[in-house]
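Box 3.1 A note on notation
Throughout this textbook, protein chains are presented in two layers. The first layer is the amino acid sequence; the second is a token string describing backbone geometry. Keep the layers aligned when reading.
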Amino acid sequence: MTEESAPGATYTQIWPTTEEFSAAELADLYRAPGVRSNMVTSIDGSLTIGGRAGGLSDPVDFEHLLLARESADVLLVGAGTARAEGYGPVTARDKALAGRRAAGQDDHPALALVSASLDLDPSSPMFADAPHRPLVLTHTPDGGADADWTRRREALADVAEIVLLPGPQAAAEHGSAGGAAIVAALRERGHTRILTEGGPALLGTLVTDGALEELLVSYSPTVAGGDGRRMVTGAPESPRGARLVLLLKADDLLIARYRMR
């Protein structure tokens, strides 16, 4: 992702009280342990313009995205989202290092990718230039590993830690979509501040299992039209409620923080 950020962005809280937040103060709020998502949407509910969420992101939103990342222990992303958005290495800027060190965090967040097919390029910058060895969370195909899947796994094992999770069939037998297993695997590795940027299928998995605790939603001042994707797909049959705990304004961008009920 190559967007430029807006340095020194100021965040005005407009609910539940009115006050100014510096970026450092907001980072401290986001540093609380938990599983949270950070997504941007247009006013009319589209996640993408031209097939990419980056089309909705302006420098103010991108600064908020970096701030949320820099508060996390690990960034959890679906492989399809990482490919579509052109993810590179996940690093914290110099100005975030003091806060991370004071909180006992590594200098840079880890990257965890979720992929069933393992269709990832081991030479891509998100692997080759990563400050930490990324995690790739996957499962053996229910029909068994074929030669292509095995070859891809072996290639990725040179640049990432491969974490095998229960397959969809095994997870379903335990009433799970796999989201709980993903979170458990990250926590077993010491990651208590987990941030995900989707995509929608991964968020649906986390919501279905009750593993997603908070949502950060940036409302881009854009009317996108078209038939863009929704934020969550494959969610449970019964809708899940959420409670608004914070509403911020930065220029024309609105940022809402919801806590799942």
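The mean pLDDT is 91. Residues 46 and 226 are 8 Å apart (CA to CA).
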